[in-house]
Every structure is written in structure tokens, then in C-alpha cells.
Design goal:
Length: 139
């Protein structure tokens, strides 16, 4: 439900409706990042690709808070579950979609237990991902 306000209409993240929701896409595979950015931009979404935890956290520290995070389960030097735990410890409760080559992997289950909205099987950079992102940013 969209809250009623007296000034610009707002959606769930308290941004005016004319401000595009911001999607953070974290994956160390350039091809996957490139395909995802092309797809999201073609649908009018504002998205930024990050190749590592460090580049994503640097933007967070600069105040760039996404409305949705798409996160690879296996990143260099850290896994997606550890990054989710770090976000939760910072009191960041942004919805997360996990990408994994093996959706039955124990870390995929752990991510769901931590609150991931969905685990999608790679190389799923498709309508299913866009549908889940749209569902998150529309609620």
C-alpha cells in the first residue's frame, strides 16, 4: 500500500514516484553484470553493477542506498550470505535477490533463512529477475 502524503507522492522507500528505484547488482562476472545492466536499463530501471563487496560498501558508505540488491552467492573473498549478515549488522534491510549456479547449495538455503526474497539460478538474467525486482519496488 502506498502511504498518503501531503506533498509529492511517495512509494515504500519514501522516494518521490518520479525518482527511479535504484537497483544494486553485485556479481564478479563481467558478462553477467553487463547483461543485467543492459536488461535493467532497457526496462527503465536505474541500476549500478558492482564487481565486489568493497565497491558496493564504498557506495553505501557514501549514502547510496539501493531499493533492491541482486547479489551473487559466490563473490571473491566473501559469499553472499556473509555480505547479507554485514548489511543486517548495519541495520540495512534492503530486499535481496540471490543469484546462484546451484539453488540447492546450503548457502542458498542460509540466504533465504536470513531473509533473501528469492534465490534464482544463474544464468537467470531474464524476465524472472525483472519480475521479482518489479514486485519488490512496487510494494
Amino acid at each position: 500500500m502506498i502511504p498518503q502524503t501531503s506533498s509529492p507522492t511517495m512509494h515504500r522507500s519514501n522516494k518521490p514516484l518520479d525518482v527511479k528505484p535504484f537497483i544494486a547488482f553485485i556479481d564478479n562476472d563481467y558478462g553477467v553484470r553487463d547483461a543485467a545492466m543492459s536488461l535493467m536499463e532497457s526496462y527503465g530501471l536505474e541500476a549500478k553493477a558492482y564487481e565486489s563487496r568493497a565497491t558496493f560498501i564504498a557506495d553505501l558508505n557514501d549514502g547510496r542506498n539501493p531499493d533492491c540488491i541482486v547479489l551473487d552467492l559466490h563473490l571473491p573473498n566473501i559469499n553472499g550470505v556473509d555480505l547479507m549478515q554485514e548489511l543486517l549488522s548495519r541495520k540495512i534491510h534492503t530486499p535481496v535477490i540471490i543469484l546462484s549456479a546451484d539453488v540447492a547449495h546450503p548457502l542458498s538455503v542460509q540466504a533465504l533463512e536470513l531473509g533473501a526474497v528469492k534465490v534464482l539460478e544463474k544464468p537467470t538474467i531474464s524476465e524472472e529477475l525483472l519480475e521479482k525486482i518489479h514486485e519488490i519496488i512496487s510494494s
